[in-house]
Design brief:
Helices cover 80% and strands 0% of the residues. The protein has 431 residues and is mostly helical.
Length: 431
């Protein structure tokens, strides 16, 4: 009976995973827009530290709102081996996010986004090697995945050429900065592609994404604070930068908040359709990065036709490759392969197979919301107060922006949030 439920639930939740992946793309893309503030004089380490602080606040607030801390801690106590994996994932995220800030500073959002989104190739590799993803897949599905991967690599090469084409200057400094930005984006790709290994282990063990991100953020904050004080000039320098830039702290915290929304959707996509499909689909965030960079910040306003064609063409090809991968729906043979990987995890960590398998497709027994405690309301109140206080200091950054596009892109993102959030609640109760 449980196995029939699993098969039916897996089929039903494939569409949900796709919807979550698309919503993740919108919010992950918009979350990087505030990092353009690095051009306003802040160091990349300070920008990333502020974003991680915003992430820390949001990652504790959302699980508290949706499930309650009692449920989260019960989930963590039942799977203590995953706490270390969650901290490791947070550390990888913090390093990757810092590299993206360097990439944005040197080459801009419109180009950096597609480059670091080659992380889906790393994710596909780890999914196949460690979790038996795509084992037993049909020839059509393999063609979609391999063809999509080739398209992503081709697009990355096009974007690399666009960097070199756009670089100029007799002293070679602009070209050097472009290459540095390219390497930073690719480094972020590796960090974020590897980060999905702990994600997958968590969901094979039946952990709720809301519980996972609660511990995840501890690894983020510790790693980012360490990077800031060791490589960013020390505590005194970082503190002075924060004091001088208090007018923009709200926007960086907001960027971290938006990233949490996108990452939660991405984690649900990873849970329901796997690394090899969920990550490429969420990598449509590059379309949103291109939109924010070109339409809001005018990054391509002075670019020549060749540069524009390389950036736009590369982005389109990469999106098509990601969509080809994501539409390769898992067959019954692939589900059997997943069962084998799940059984291995259960035997290794002493978990109940049937209960864990049901939780993997949102049918677990503990899918009801935990009881709220007084501290749950306190956590939410503190988070709101932090954003209100930062909002009172907030100033419009001294960066040219098209406000009509800011409003339009923000409105579309809210539509994705409402639609995907409602579907996730209806089908799984955020489990």
């Amino acid at each position: 009976m449980a196995r029939d439920q699993v098969r039916s639930g897996a089929t039903k939740l494939h569409l949900l995973g796709v919807i979550c992946g698309i919503a993740a793309g919108a919010w992950l893309g918009g979350a990087e827009a505030p990092t353009k503030l690095v051009l306003a004089g802040l160091s990349p380490f300070t920008v990333s530290l502020c974003m991680v602080a915003g992430v820390f606040v949001a990652r504790w607030t959302f699980p508290t709102l949706l499930r309650g801390t009692s449920y989260v801690f019960t989930d963590l106590r039942s799977k203590p081996h995953l706490i270390v994996w969650a901290i490791l994932a947070g550390a990888l995220w913090a390093v990757g996010n810092t590299l993206t800030v360097f990439a944005i500073r040197n080459v801009g959002l419109a180009v950096a986004f597609p480059l670091w989104n080659t992380n889906c190739l790393i994710g596909i590799l780890w999914g196949c090697l460690l979790f038996r993803e795509l084992r037993g897949a049909s020839a059509t599905n393999w063609l979609k995945v391999i063809g999509g991967a080739v398209a992503i690599v081709a697009a990355a090469i096009m974007l690399g050429f666009s960097l070199l084409h756009g670089a100029s200057g007799a002293d070679g400094k602009q070209s050097t900065h472009a290459v540095a930005g390219l390497l930073a984006a690719l480094g972020a790709s590796f960090m974020w592609g590897t980060m999905y290994v702990p994600y997958k282990k968590a969901y094979l063990s039946g952990m709720n994404p809301l519980s996972f991100v609660t511990v995840f953020t501890i690894g983020e904050l510790i790693t980012m604070f360490t990077l800031a004080i060791t490589l960013g000039g020390g505590v005194t320098h970082i503190r002075q930068e924060l004091i001088n830039a208090k007018g923009v702290l709200f926007w960086l915290f907001l960027g971290g908040f938006c990233w949490v929304v996108g990452d939660l959707f991405q984690q649900y996509a990873t849970k329901y359709i796997g690394i090899g499909r969920g990550i490429p689909l969420s990598n449509t965030n590059q379309l949103w990065g291109l939109a924010w960079g070109a339409l809001v910040f005018g990054e391509l306003a002075n670019a020549d036709r060749t540069h524009v064609l390389l950036v736009v063409g590369g982005s389109i090809i990469m999106i098509l490759g990601a969509l080809a991968i994501s539409t390769a729906a898992a067959s019954s043979e692939e589900h059997h392969s997943t069962d084998m990987a799940l059984n291995r995890e259960c035997q290794h960590y002493g978990l109940n197979y049937e209960q864990t398998r049901l939780s993997l497709v949102g049918l677990g027994e503990s899918s009801t919301t935990g009881a709220r405690r007084w501290w749950d309301y306190l956590i939410v109140a503190v988070a709101v107060c932090i954003f209100v206080a930062l909002g009172r200091w907030a100033q419009i950054p001294a960066i040219t922006m098209n406000m009509r596009w800011v409003i339009g892109l923000s409105a579309v993102s809210l539509v994705f949030l409402a639609g995907a959030g409602w579907r996730l609640w209806r089908d799984t109760g955020f489990f």
